[in-house]
From TrEMBL:
Membrane topology: Peripheral membrane protein
Keyword terms: Cell membrane, Coiled coil, Cytoplasm, Exocytosis, Membrane, Protein transport, Repeat, Transport, WD repeat
Residues in the signal sequence: none
Species name: Nothobranchius furzeri (Turquoise killifish)
GO function terms (MF aspect): GTPase activator activity; myosin II binding; syntaxin binding
Name of the protein in its database record: Syntaxin-binding protein 5-like
Pfam families: LLGL, WD40
Principal subcellular localisation of the protein: membrane
Length: 1116
């Protein structure tokens, strides 16, 4: 614990210009500055660097660009590989693990070591990896890099340690899974085919051992050649040459026939004893045309041939549809007896797998589920019901149902908000799902002790908003809100929305939510704002709309007159925002000029609508077109709904903000005319959301006035600010060049004449240095690093609030930082965070209760409210793209300053609670995540975590309390991270276990006759054929063995010394004892069987020789 004591005395008044130019505010990082204050600041900081560590926690969503699929039928876990080198392993809800290959190469094949707690991955860089799944954080144990051949197919027989690897050259190699060393046994393509064959058979597309005899390996080549290779004799049993290319092969469990899928949309059935031609050829979707020819069909990419005891076999395949039917969706076909069912999918099929009851390929398979991996979805089909219903997916695979446009993260929410949202959202869930248990139920997961309510909010391009329960490292959708229901459906190619945003007129730009008051604000791309209030009851309501027309200055005026400077605020005329007491008339009834100026982008529903329980629209604000130009998009939203105020930032003339304290004091040149930037200069408007302007909501919003900016306080020469679209263009232009320096290549005049408002914060503060008590204020930050403090004059009495206007005026308080202002926060004089006051939630649609208070109740959630009331002041934390400062209010003295970065810039900054204290968390464009102590701004953590390569990360990265953060790692996935050492220590407890000890199911007793006449698969010993003693060593130049790192958990165990060794030895001893017990049981069973066979053989010898063998009762 370190105590910071700062005695500040001396100067009590200073001009803003002096504060800006003070050398103290440009001092080194974390340096206290000589600042004026008559009192002593005593803050005990408890956070140290030992409280911070950065690591990934969990990833939610659908794997982006999936490529491969695998399933362990005993452990019942599912693995999905992706093009970026990631592997997602899924089990029961809560068991969700993400692994990433360091190379980033696409995952081509996945193969579980069934019930062994291991996974083999084959990547596009021709490397095999063995992953250990017996730890909560899987790690690579071995890697094998092929140098001269490309991997095309992998096959691992059940309970075998030898992996078959097919290559692009047509060769088949064999890898020892335990040592990950290549065997000297190789099946060369030129030996597999006949010597007389003149063409190359193509890459290996299939490998499988015969269910009848494991010593027979079936090899499928792309060009249409199929070879059954005798591993013992090292020769081909048979060769099949077919005209059509082969995509997949599937065995019947008895090994007497196999099925192939081909590029012409056909399925062929072959008998291994007669391979001259297939004994059955079918075109499932190829109808016979009038001329007698078959329809041309698409290739069947994969086929599965599964048998069942109680019904006909299942033949399941993807593709094969006819080319003639244009626009038909991708489909999965299920052939069961004579019934053919076509399941159309919403996205192309990447891979599918049929889940069966047994892991043995020589037993009746009994399929019960099909897992279908699509490009953007995961579908699981129930095969046990004739209607083939799908299972309800327990994983959050639909985050990207509509593209995510914004995110918000709230930790330590009120405990009652999640059950309420879930109960309302459950009423709107889809039905028709299978009632059976989710088939992927492997792993174990328990609710950890370090959990608290967390909610993630995602906004989407279609205007929908989803609330997710993110507690305990899980993600489950609670409630979905559709903002488009507020508006009439726009007709394609018509209206203002078509001219402004054709594709997604309802897209959500930003959200603001108060969990305590349950008030929710949404900003849309069509320059609209929707205010929602929560209710547990449905209601019939008429949506209230407020249309605002913004008149801008002429861009060509360089030195305007005083009246021209303030067209929006000088008089209450046509240039000020005009509230509408009723909905505007249709555009057809106006003059062309009126329709040109007054048409909104979207049309709000005018009729009375019935709204269900949940979030119900209370007010809609729309910006109108002006002079044929669309309204500017809203870039900042901050709610002071405890004061019934809402600030919507578009832009504003600098003179309106600075007044006489403009630090530049120069005349500006007019910016270049740009149609996309509108013909006027920029403005900012403050509006109060109240029902005095809308006659429909007098009962709902009693404190109702239009907030006015008093122009008599605004004097002095003005500068024009660039439009928010200019800022957006600037952000897009630097999307792939984040290492640039902002100020080095821009002239001082250009820098001074292009400014935009970047952040806002309501709070009770001291608007002027002479203030004794705090009053409502608005803190404004600009892109040039300017901080302005605007006091708000708000009538406190209920009746006065209904009649008098809320006024604002610049106080002259101006501070300056390096770079654009990003965040404001307030601390009391003891260093505790001052939360914004909020209004206690009250259900306006609830039945009348005489005991319920009708007036709203404000809660001031601040440890220092008593201190503020006594006028002891508070601390203001300001963070910009380059710098952070702490000011003492009301003296406005700079106490501490820290230069965060010089070579990059901060993208996101938040003041968050960690370990019962507060700190400033920053995410920079160069990928660094930093934390600074408060108020001293000491660096606590600086980790080079994630280089910013996509604006999606910058748009969605957000911090929250408890040392957590998230960002959209791909268009379909949310990555959560923690920077808290305490959470990193408890991470192992909170994650799920992938591997659970399960006894391997025993193989069915095949019977003596089947084993004697049908071949004995268990007599085949691969070690004798593939081991180094028999096959020799493979060429060193063919493949390179790379030892794995073993993972973080393994290194921690190794660091534990004797304790870790004993733990590993105990685990190994338990596993060995379990295996020895199983071996002993099998040995006893074999001895009993041998004794029985010997007894019956002796009886046979004692009987007359002429007796027929069919009369002997042999054991099975």
């Amino acid at each position: 614990m370190k105590k910071f004591r700062k005695v500040l005395d001396g100067l009590t008044t200073s001009s803003p210009g002096g504060t800006i130019g003070s050398p103290s505010c440009g001092s080194a990082a974390g340096t206290p500055t000589a600042a004026p204050t008559p009192r002593e600041i005593d803050v005990q900081e408890t956070l140290t660097s030992d409280n911070f560590q950065l690591c990934k926690t969990v990833r939610h969503g659908f794997p982006y660009q999936p490529t491969a699929l695998a399933f362990d039928p005993v452990q019942k876990i599912l693995a999905i590989g992706s093009r970026s080198g990631g592997v997602r392993i899924l089990g029961r809800p809560g068991v969700d693990c993400f692994c990433q290959h360091e190379s980033g190469a696409a995952v081509l094949h996945l193969q579980f070591l069934i019930n062994e707690g291991a996974l083999v991955t084959a990547c596009a860089d021709d490397t095999l990896h063995l992953w250990n799944l017996r730890q909560r954080r899987p790690a690579v144990l071995h890697s094998l890099k092929f140098n001269r051949e490309r991997i095309t197919f992998c096959h691992l027989p059940f309970q075998s340690k030898w992996l078959y690897v097919g290559t692009e050259r047509g060769n088949t190699h064999i890898v020892n899974i335990e040592s990950f060393i290549l065997s000297g046994y190789v099946i060369m393509w030129n030996k597999a085919i006949e010597l007389s064959t003149k063409t190359h058979p193509g890459p290996v597309v299939h490998l499988s051992d015969s269910p009848k005899d494991e010593g027979k390996l079936l090899i499928g080549f792309e060009a249409g050649t199929i070879v059954q290779w005798d591993l013992r004799a090292k020769k081909a049993d048979f060769r099949i040459y077919y005209d059509e290319a082969i995509h997949s092969v599937s065995w019947h469990h008895e090994g007497k026939q196999f099925m192939c899928s081909h590029s012409d949309g056909s399925l062929t059935l072959w008998n291994p004893r007669n391979t001259t031609k297939p004994f059955q050829v079918t075109f499932p979707h190829g109808k016979i045309q009038k001329d007698g020819r078959k329809e041309s069909c698409k290739p069947i990419l994969k086929v599965e041939y599964k048998t069942s005891r109680s019904s006909e076999p299942f033949i399941i395949f993807s593709g094969g549809l006819s080319y003639d039917k244009a626009g038909r969706r991708p489909a999965l076909t299920i052939m069961h007896g004579k019934a053919i069912t076509v399941l159309e999918m919403g996205y192309p099929i990447v891979e599918f797998m049929v889940l069966c009851e047994t892991p043995y390929n020589n037993e009746v398979q009994e399929p019960y589920t099909v897992v279908v991996l699509l490009e953007k979805d995961l579908i699981v089909v129930d095969l046990t019901q004739s209607s083939f219903p799908v299972f309800e997916n327990p994983y959050p695979m639909d985050i990207h149902e509509s593209p995510v446009t914004c995110t918000a993260y709230f930790a330590d929410c009120p405990p009652d908000i999640i059950p309420i949202l879930y109960s309302i959202g459950a009423k709107h869930k889809k039905t028709g799902y299978s009632h059976k248990e989710w088939p992927v139920g492997g792993g174990t997961w328990t609710l950890g002790s370090h959990t608290y309510p967390e909610i993630i909010i995602t906004g989407h391009a279609d205007g929908s908003i989803k609330f997710w329960d993110a507690s305990a490292f899980t993600l489950q959708m609670l409630y979905k809100l559709k903002t488009s229901k507020v508006f009439e459906k726009p007709k394609a190619g018509e209206g203002r929305s078509a001219e402004m945003v054709e594709e997604d007129p309802f897209a959500v730009q930003m959200v603001s939510w108060c969990p305590q008051s349950r008030i929710f604000c949404v900003v849309g791309i069509s320059a609209h704002i929707i205010l929602y209030r929560f209710s547990k009851y449905d209601a019939n309501t008429q949506i209230v709309s407020l249309e605002v027309r913004l008149q801008c200055e002429s861009e060509d005026v360089i030195t305007p007159s005083e009246n021209e400077n303030y067209p929006c605020f000088s008089e209450q005329g046509s240039h000020s925002p005009q509230p509408h007491h009723q909905h505007p008339v249709s555009p057809g009834s106006r003059t062309p000029e009126g329709a040109k100026d007054r048409g909104p982008c979207l049309k709000v529903k005018e009729r009375v609508v019935r709204v269900p329980p949940g979030y119900q629209s209370d007010l809609v604000i729309q910006l109108l077109w002006v002079d044929g130009e669309p309204p500017q998009q809203i870039t900042i939203l901050h709610d002071g709904l405890s004061l019934h105020l809402l600030v919507i930032i578009l832009c504003m003339s600098t003179v309106d903000l600075y007044g006489a304290t403009d630090p530049y004091q120069r005349l500006t040149r007019s910016p270049r005319r740009n149609r996309q930037s509108t013909s006027g200069s920029t403005h900012k408007h403050l509006w109060e959301l109240t029902s005095h302007t809308c006659t429909h909501t007098q009962s709902k919003m009693p404190n109702t006035h239009t907030l006015c900016i008093n122009s008599r306080f605004l004097k002095g020469p003005g500068r024009k600010l660039s439009l928010p679209t200019d800022l957006k263009t600037d952000l897009e232009s630097r999307e792939n060049s984040f290492s640039r320096s902002r100020s080095s290549s821009v002239s001082s005049i250009d820098r001074d004449t292009k400014e935009a408002i970047t952040t806002l914060q309501f709070g009770e503060s001291y608007g002027r240095k002479s203030d004794v008590l705090p009053t409502p204020c608005l803190w404004v930050g600009t892109s040039l690093g300017m901080v302005l403090l605007i006091p708000l004059s708000i009538p406190t009495d209920h009746e006065e609030r209904m009649e008098e206007a809320v006024t604002v005026g610049p106080s002259g308080a101006v501070q300056m930082l390096k770079g654009s202002i990003l965040r404001f926060a307030f601390l009391d004089c003891m260093g505790a965070l001052i939360q914004s006051p909020y209004e206690v939630w009250r259900d306006l649609n609830a039945p009348e209760d005489p005991d319920r208070p009708r007036r709203r109740k404000l809660v001031h959630f601040s440890p220092s409210s008593s201190q503020d009331a006594n006028g002891d002041g508070h601390l203001a934390v300001v963070c910009s793209e380059r710098q952070a400062k702490v000011f003492l209010m009301p003296s406005q003295a700079c106490l501490f300053v820290h230069n965060i970065t010089e070579s990059s810039f901060v993208l996101r900054a938040d003041v968050v609670s960690v370990c019962n204290s507060v700190c400033l968390a920053c995410f920079c464009a160069n990928g660094h995540v930093m934390t600074l102590s408060l108020p001293s701004l000491r660096p606590l953590m600086d980790v080079n975590y994630l280089p910013l390569t996509d604006m999606r990360i910058a748009r969605t990265f957000c911090f929250t309390n408890g040392g957590q953060a998230l960002y959209l790692s791909s268009p379909t996935e949310i990555q959560r991270i923690t920077y808290s050492q305490e959470m990193c220590d408890n991470l192992q407890e909170m994650l799920g276990e992938l591997f659970t000890p399960i006894e391997t199911p025993e193989a069915q007793n095949r019977g003596f006759l089947k084993g004697f006449f049908g071949g004995n698969a268990h007599a085949f010993d691969r070690e004798e054929l593939f081991g180094e003693a028999a096959a020799g060593k493979a060429s060193r130049s063919l493949a390179q063995h790379i030892p794995g790192q073993g993972g973080v958990e393994g290194m921690k165990m190794a660091a534990g010394g004797a304790v870790g060794e004993l733990a590993r030895a105990r685990i190994a001893l338990d596993e060995r004892g379990q295996r020895l017990g199983e071996l002993e049981e099998r040995t006893a069973l074999m001895m009993t069987s041998a004794e029985s066979f010997s007894k019956h053989a002796h009886e046979k010898c004692m009987k007359p020789q002429w007796m027929s063998i069919k009369n002997i009762q042999l054991p099975y």
